[in-house]
């Protein structure tokens, strides 16, 4: 759970627009906004140095926003926008919370250990990188660390299997997969390709059966064609001899 309290000083924002935002960033202040149920959204500026000190420690959930005047606001970080070229933070959205009311938020998930399924020839996949949890603001976990050593090949850890701190419940469907170990698809595709190659090779090596009757018929036709080419017609030799004897 979050043990230390994150505190940020904020200054009420009076100038708005893209030009004013760029000017504030050049001066080392990050534009931000806080909103919530039943309250009017408030815009302010955050010292970049203070934000970077918090951000370098990792996940930031519950934050106390201290204005120059007025009450301290308890909030959770909803969205952080970055400049895609420089990587600098350009805007932060906060959601005000009541310390005695349950809230729903997202917490990062990491796996701890090496699954036995990898030794069995599988590969680990993480399906959920964030878990949606419901709890009081003070009970928000900094991170959800899951022991994954026992995952075997073709097995998974689902949301219902994750042990959460007291007072924290998961809002995701219980059967949602968080981690699983599956067979390598490359090996399966290689085996299928090898099998197809073996079938194709067998088909190419097959000898076409010889049709004896057809071959004999073709041979006779060939002989007749040869006789016609020499000016002779095939006749019955016995019949021709008898006709000659009668004439004598």
Concise overview:
The chain has 248 residues and is α+β, with helices and mostly antiparallel strands. The protein has helices at residues 18-26, 48-55, 116-119, 185-205, 212-229, 237-247, and strands at 6-12, 29-36, 39-47, 62-67, 73-82, 89-96, 103-112, 122-126, 130-135, 144-147, 156-158, 169-170, 177-183. It starts with 5 loop residues before the first strand and ends with a helix.
Key structural traits:
single chain, 248 residues, alpha+beta, Ribosomal Protein L25, Chain P, RNA Polymerase Alpha Subunit, Chain A, domain 2, 2 domains, six-stranded mixed β-barrel, four-stranded mixed β-sheet, 6 helices, 13 strands
Q: What does the overall shape look like?
A: elongated
> Which structural category fits the helices and strands?
alpha+beta
CATH architecture term of the largest domain: Beta Barrel
The third-level CATH topology of the largest domain is: Ribosomal Protein L25, Chain P
Identify the CATH class of the largest domain. Mainly Beta
Mean pLDDT across every amino acid position:
80
State the end-to-end CA separation: 133 Å
Strand content range: 25-35%
Number of DSSP E strands: 13
- Indicate the low-confidence ranges by residue numbers: 211-235
Q: Please, how many domains?
A: 2
Radius of gyration: 42 Å
Q: How would you write the strand order of the largest sheet?
A: 1-3-2-6-5-4
Major sheet summary line = 6 strands, mixed, barrel
Count the DSSP helices: 6
The arrangement of helices and strands along the chain is EHEEHEEEEHEEEEEEHHH
The helicity comes to 25-40%
Within CATH, the superfamily of the largest domain carries the name Ribosomal Protein L25, Chain P
């Amino acid at each position: 759970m979050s043990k230390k309290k994150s505190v940020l000083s904020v200054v009420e924002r009076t100038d708005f627009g893209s030009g004013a935002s760029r000017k504030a960033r050049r001066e080392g202040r990050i534009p931000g906004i806080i909103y919530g149920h039943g309250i009017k959204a408030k815009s302010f500026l955050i010292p970049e140095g203070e934000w970077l000190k918090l951000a370098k420690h990792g996940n930031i959930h519950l934050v106390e926003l201290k204005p120059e005047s007025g009450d301290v606001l308890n909030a959770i970080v909803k969205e952080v926008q970055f400049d895609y070229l420089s990587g600098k933070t350009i805007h932060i959205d906060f959601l005000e919370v009541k310390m005695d009311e349950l809230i729903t938020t997202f917490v990062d998930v990491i796996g701890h250990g090496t699954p036995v399924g990898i030794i069995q020839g599988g590969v680990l996949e993480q399906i959920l990188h964030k878990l949606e949890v419901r709890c009081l603001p003070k009970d928000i976990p900094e991170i959800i660390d899951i022991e994954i050593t026992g995952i075997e090949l073709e097995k998974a850890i689902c949301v219902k299997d994750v042990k959460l701190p007291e007072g924290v419940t998961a809002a995701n469907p219980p059967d949602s997969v968080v981690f699983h170990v599956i067979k390598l698809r490359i090996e399966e595709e290689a085996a299928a390709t090898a099998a197809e190659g073996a079938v194709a090779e067998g088909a190419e090596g097959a000898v076409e059966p010889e049709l004896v009757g057809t071959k004999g018929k073709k041979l006779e036709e060939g002989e007749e064609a040869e006789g016609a080419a020499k000016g002779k017609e095939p006749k019955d030799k016995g019949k021709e001899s008898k006709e000659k004897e009668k004439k004598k």
